[in-house]
Design a protein that fits this description.
This protein is mostly helical. The chain has one domain. About 65% of the residues lie in helices and about 0% in strands. It contains 6 helices and no strands. α1 packs antiparallel against α2.
């Protein structure tokens, strides 16, 4: 994507760590959540690859259309899975945004990260508004809630949860991927 190399590498690191955590969550999560978590891992790694600064690596001409096809398939999967839950609609919007960014980058001169493609301003703005709202909503879900008296914790009669089963970490990952999407759209 466009932008300074240092912020690009920070974005790569954030997305790669998020994708790796999502892969680890797939191992510990419930069977019904594995598809959602796998989609989040794909999104994290895909965003990490797309955010690599152009000074470090310029992808071949076929890479951007391949990204568009891959995220298009992920979007179709999210659309199919949306029958079961509303969160899959967010995955559909995210996959659509990745397809959009891939198509814009494929149309930019030289197919480079910083090639100068700007996309459709109205669509970019709508996606920015959606993901900015998502980030704000996800951020409010991370605000600590006062513990209920007698709720207990590890060592107080309730079993300790594994780190992959902690919902606040999953929310933090979703928040970080939302922020990364806003950053990528801003630099488009």
């Amino acid at each position: 994507m466009h932008g300074p190399a240092s912020s690009g590498w920070l974005l790569v690191a954030l997305c790669a760590v998020t994708g790796a955590y999502c892969l680890l969550r797939m191992r510990t999560g419930a069977e019904g959540e594995r598809g959602t978590t796998g989609g989040e891992a794909l999104m994290g790694f895909g965003m990490a690859v797309m955010a690599v600064p152009a000074a470090a690596f310029t992808p071949p001409a076929w890479a951007w259309p391949a990204y568009a096809v891959m995220f298009g398939a992920a979007g179709l999967h999210a659309l199919w899975a949306a029958r079961a839950g509303a969160h899959h609609l967010h995955h559909l919007v995210g996959a659509g945004a990745m397809v959009y960014m891939s198509v814009v980058m494929a149309g930019s001169p030289g197919h480079a990260h910083g090639g100068g493609g700007s996309g459709v301003p109205l669509l970019t703005g709508m996606l920015l508004l959606y993901f900015a709202g998502y980030v704000l909503l996800a951020g409010t879900r991370l605000v600590p809630v006062a513990a209920v008296a007698g709720s207990g914790g590890a060592g107080r009669g309730t079993p300790a949860r594994r780190w992959g089963d902690r919902p606040e970490l999953a929310r933090a990952c979703r928040l970080s991927m939302g922020m990364a999407m806003v950053a990528m759209l801003l630099t488009l």
